[in-house]
Structure formats: structure tokens, C-alpha cells
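*** Residues and shapes ***
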Amino acid sequence: MDKEAILVVEDEDIMRDSLVAWLSAEGHTVHGVGDGDQALTEFSVEDYDAMIIDLKLPGRNGLDVLTEVKKRNPNARVVIVTAYPSHDTEVEAQRRGALDYLSKPFELARLRQSLGWAYEQPEILPPLVEEPLLEEENISPCIWTQAGVAPDRLCTLGYRCNSGCRFHTAMSKKHKADARIQPYLDKLTYLAGCQQCRYVMGGELSSRSCPSLYQCEACELSQAVQERVDQQLEIKAENRRRKRAASARRRGQGEGGGRTAKLIH
């Protein structure tokens, strides 16, 4: 991983100091603050490559800070950490653009990996036998996945790639010379010019005229697809929870042989 400027937003002094010390020892330039308002002030005057934000903070909570940071810089890389994990907050953090959502305590190796996951999906770990993974389905594949540039990823915006998709903006900057994506961008332009439904991009429809002039919020098809996308996001979040539980169980079983990974509490 390249050496980066990182902001740690954590109200617990011990946790904040531990993260700052560890990341600094890794060679990064690190600054720590104790609340959300300080974080946004610091973010406005310093160009940080990544941020680690606690979910529960004095004043603005971590999700509010995440939202404001993403408004100011859609390419900002943010990891949310919390001692009070929940399915709802994990899904919401993903919706607002967090790279990862880590439950305390977590291994430093996992945080290092999360900070390097700008456009990658988490590694799939074997599930616990008593908690099998739910079946996942990519019912609305992102055009970057279709082009073979990004890993398996859902489109959550109904193929409105050029009007608000932060992932598309970031990938376009990173892979602007990659010819694989151009046919898909050309197809989006063609569909708009012919007033064809954007969901043709997903491959489930060969052709469909757009009856709503791209007012997708009023389109029954768009609403139905979005419901399926929301269901898949929930399934993916639940599978990640189960994989974390399986990993924790395996670590617990291996503690008899001694621990080699340092934890951040």
C-alpha cells in the first residue's frame, strides 16, 4: 500500500492514539480528532487520502460525517468502525459510500486490507456450518462489471451512471484509458437518444421504450428492480456478517496455539 495521509475520527482516546501510532509506524501521515465537527473542519483544510470514522461520536455521528465528506469529495475513502454493530447501520454505511464497516475489536491486518479496497469486494471466507450464506444474485450488474474491469458489483442507481454515480466517476478517472468500458458508455448514449429504458443495460431486456422520459422514480419497472437490488444489498450485508462470525470462530479455535495478529479494541 502506498504511504497516505489518513484522518482518524475517534472519541475514545486510547483507541484513537492506538490507531494513530500504528498507522504512523506503517509510514503514513496520520492525524486524530475526537468528534465529527473537528473531523469536517480538518477535512476542509487538509487533503486526506483516507479516513477511519467511529460510528458513535459527540455531536455529528459517523454516518453524518461520512455523508458530508462524500458530498465534498466523492472519491474519499472511508472506513466506519463501531463497537455497536448492527445490520441497519452497516447497510446504511454502504449506501452512503463507506469502503468497509468493521466491528471492534478488529485485527490490524483487516483494517490494512480495508484501506486498500478502493474498488474491490471483500474476500469470501468459508461460512459457519450453522449459518450458511444466503444465495446472492447480481440482478443489475454494474457496467464496469460487465466490461470486466471491476469485480461482481450491483448497479444501485438504475444505470444513471453519468448523473450521480460516485463509483462510475471514480472508476472513469482511474481507468480513463481502458477501452473495455467505451462500448457500454456508447450504449448508454444510444439508449438515451432512442428513449430506450436504461435497464436494457442489465441484459434482462433486449429492448424497451422508456414511458416516463427517464423520470425513473415514477416508473413501476424501476421501482420493482430497485426493490430487488435493495434485497440483494441486504443479503450481501448479512453474508458479510456471517463470514465475520465464521472468521471469529476460527480465530477462537486457534487461540490455543497462540495469537499472532494484533487487535485494535
User: Anything to note?
Assistant: The two ends are 23 Å apart (CA to CA). Residues 126-260 form one domain. Residues 21 and 229 are 40 Å apart (CA to CA).
